[in-house]
Design goal:
Order of helices and strands: HEHEHHHEHEHE
Largest sheet: 5 strands, parallel
Shape: globular
Number of domains: 1
CATH class: Alpha Beta
Helix content: 40-55%
CATH topology: Hypothetical Protein Ychn, Chain: A
CATH superfamily: DsrEFH-like
Number of strands: 5
Low-confidence stretches: none
Strand content: 15-25%
Strand order of the largest sheet: 4-3-2-1-5
Length: 151
């Protein structure tokens, strides 16, 4: 009986993760992309809903412009962290984002944030964005997900 319950549970699981990327801080973007790409590599379906300062990082030329969330020290802290990441062979944000999309991850851009913050579609990297949408799309994705994160 236990095996049958496990089988039923596996059938009803969506094997899906949905992340809200609210922050534009460099370290938080790294976290979101590493978790998202890791989930894709493990066979999960992954959507990232970019909103507010997270969406700002999807502007053309803005991906690397986010500060550290802590100990930024007028940019010195960010520089030090980037040096350590380079020595540890950690991929760049650009590479992680490209890998995420290449592995089938979905990038959802919040159109309400676009309106509030005066962001136009032509300001954003259209090569990465799967869909421009409202919160209802995020809710649908999250409702179907086994994992939801707010970063």
């Amino acid at each position: 009986m236990e095996d049958k319950n496990k089988e039923i549970k596996e059938i009803t699981m969506h094997n899906k993760a949905t992340l809200i990327v609210h922050s534009g801080d460099m370290d938080k973007l790294y976290s979101a992309l590493i978790v998202g790409t890791g989930a894709l590599a493990m066979g999960m379906e992954v959507s990232m809903y970019f909103t507010f300062w997270g969406l700002e990082r999807l502007k053309k030329g803005a991906l690397e412009k986010g500060p550290l969330s802590r100990m930024n020290m007028l940019g010195l802290g960010k520089w030090m962290v980037k040096q350590k990441m380079r020595k540890a062979n950690v991929a760049s944000l650009e590479r992680l984002l490209e890998d995420f999309v290449e592995l089938g991850g979905k990038i959802l851009a919040c159109d309400m944030t676009m309106e509030i913050m005066g962001i136009k579609k032509e300001d954003l990297r259209d090569d990465l964005i799967s869909e421009y949408c409202a919160v209802g799309t995020y809710i649908k994705e999250a409702k179907e997900s086994d994992i939801t994160l707010f970063i």
